[in-house]
Design a protein that fits this description.
Elements: H1 5-16, H2 28-42, E1 48-50, H3 51-57, E2 67-70, H4 76-85, E3 89-91, E4 98-103, E5 106-111, H5 121-126, E6 128-132, E7 135-139, H6 142-151, H7 160-169, H8 176-182, H9 187-198
Parallel strand pairs: 2-5
Antiparallel strand pairs: 1-2, 3-4, 4-5, 6-7
């Protein structure tokens, strides 16, 4: 039976409206991420994939390629030494809440004292184990990523755009009551919720 031209046209039009995202199967930053994750795993140092790559791993758009891992404070120095043994160059920046490791132009942040969160067993339990480019690792929840971004804001550093992007893309994965409760004392979080409530993003 011949296909109906009208139906073919509607299907073709529908397919044309579906965005196609082409991503390098294993770009340079991903090799650094996997190298760092494998080193920490083999050293039996618990870690969470955090920041923009956690959002990407959970279905958000590809991030700006910052490689953020959360580690417990007690493990931070050993984690940095582990990455040095894997061939990375260490850096202890003036900020007292993270260490850095450089690898062929890419930087890995080892964050042990993030804004608004304690990196402990409870935070690890909230994360989920996911496959990221064929490697299993714990990936931070989007509401915890959002929480740290909101609580890191001050009058000199406000980035509502990235927070709104997370809210729009992963709204169904976010525990909105949890984020509201944990950020209740922040005027910047209150301003953010004015936006997401006005835009009817938050459930």
């Amino acid at each position: 039976m011949p296909a109906c031209p009208e139906n073919n046209a509607s299907v073709t039009g529908a397919l044309a409206r579906v965005p196609v995202q082409i991503v390098d199967a294993d770009p340079d930053f991903m090799r650094t991420l996997k190298k760092a994750a494998a080193a920490l795993r083999d050293a039996e140092i618990p870690f969470l994939l955090a920041g923009g790559l956690a959002i990407w791993a959970r279905g958000g758009t590809e991030s700006d390629h910052d490689i953020d891992f959360f580690v417990k404070r007690a493990d931070a120095e050993r984690a940095l030494e582990t990455l040095v043994q894997a061939g990375m160059r260490p850096e202890q920046p003036p900020e007292q809440w993270l260490y850095k490791a450089h690898d062929d132009g890419w930087m890995v942040d080892l964050i042990f004292d993030p804004a608004g969160l304690t990196v402990d067993d409870e935070l690890f339990a909230r994360a989920s184990i996911q496959e990221v480019k064929a490697m299993e690792m714990r990936v931070m929840r989007p509401d915890d990523v959002l929480l740290t971004k909101l609580l890191a804001m001050n009058e000199h550093s406000m980035n509502f755009e990235s927070c709104l992007e997370i809210a729009r893309q992963l709204r169904e994965q976010i525990d909105w009551d949890y984020v509201r409760r944990r950020t209740n004392g922040s005027p910047f979080a209150r301003a953010f919720f004015e936006l997401v409530d006005g835009l009817k993003i938050a459930a």
